[in-house]
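Incident log, structure service

09:12 report received: a user says their structure output differs between two submissions of the same chain.
09:20 pulled the input from the user's history:
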Amino acid sequence: MVLEKLVEMGYYKTKSEAIRAGVLELGKEYDILKSPRELEAEMVIRKVEQIDREIDEGKRKVYTLDEVLKESRKRKK
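09:34 re-ran on a clean worker, output below:
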């Protein structure tokens, strides 16, 4: 009922948007929400850790600088 009312009144375009806003407010209220810079840093760290795992598991190939430069030269021709 509350979600429908918030959308009807034009506060949010969708119920999902209203829920997302509510969750963010709860994060602020309980001092859980981090600054955008901290969130971005955390996301980068998680991505780097994921890539490291994929390299260790052999799911991702690592190229040397020479290999990258060689391939780059090939593509320019």
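09:41 both user submissions now match this output. Likely a transient worker issue. Closing.
09:42 reviewer note: The two ends are 63 Å apart (CA to CA). The chain has four helices and no strands.
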